Structures are given as C-alpha cells and as structure tokens.
C-alpha cells in the first residue's frame, strides 16, 4: 500500500473504528459507567492514534491532503502529543484507572480536536483552504462531541 493509500485508509479507519467503539460500548456496557469506560478511551485511542501515525509517518502526504504546507518539526511535535494522548488512553483503559481518568483523557482529546477544528476553520476562511478534508475537520469535531459528551455526562451523573 502506498503512503497516499495508507493516509486515505486512516480517514476511513476513524469513522469505522468509532462506529465499532460505539457498538461495543453499548453492547458490553452494563451501565453508563461501563459503557463510557469502553467508549471513551477507545475513541481516544482511535482518533489520537491515527492522527499520531499520520503526523509521524505520513507527514507530507497528510499535509498535502489537508492543503497545508509540510512542516515536519511541527508535525512531529503534534504527532508525539497525539501519541502521548493515545498511549495514556491505553493505560487508562487497561489499568482501569476509573471514571474520572476516562473523562479526563476524553476531555483532553476533545479540547485538542476543538482547537484543531478552529484552526481548520481559520485556514478555510482566511487562507481559502477549501479542500474537503480541511472542511470536514470541524464537522468531525462536532460529531465527536455529540458522540462522547452525552455518555460522559450520563456516566459522571451516575
């Protein structure tokens, strides 16, 4: 598989993986806390993990796809931050650190993607970057909030 093909596969892996995480969370979760423990860290691992791989391994292809100029130093730094978030989510899940750890890692990821979505909107408006992948980033951030915030609030209220 080419790097361009791998980058495209990452775009499809995200919604497919999140769909599976939602299914498994609600199928195996016995209550709101158990559902969120499966759903929250899984989505963080999928989202932050794939972004980390793209940033670290597929930097130039990922930049071109979004319509950004490649900046390897920044991409590596951003990729390492996303890798740290994904690995922390693995620890939170595997070591079962509890509801507040689940909520914290989800909140950290959501804030990153909200800020990233704002950056993509600025690039679209100010820089006339109207590439579909760039325009989809804010919509994807809203979907993530819509998928994760209600189960997180329900679990925290239980």
Outline the structure in words.
It is a single chain. With 158 residues, this protein is mainly α. It has one domain (3-157). Helix content is 86%, strand content 0%. The chain contains 6 helices and no strands.
Residues in helices, as a percent range: over 70%
Mean pLDDT: 92
The best one-word shape is: globular
Order of helices and strands: HHHHHH
DSSP strand tally: 0
Low-confidence stretches: none
Number of domains: 1
Short description:
This protein has six helices and no strands. It has helices spanning 3-28, 32-57, 59-66, 72-94, 99-125, 132-157.
For the structure shown, list the relevant keywords.
158 residues; mainly alpha
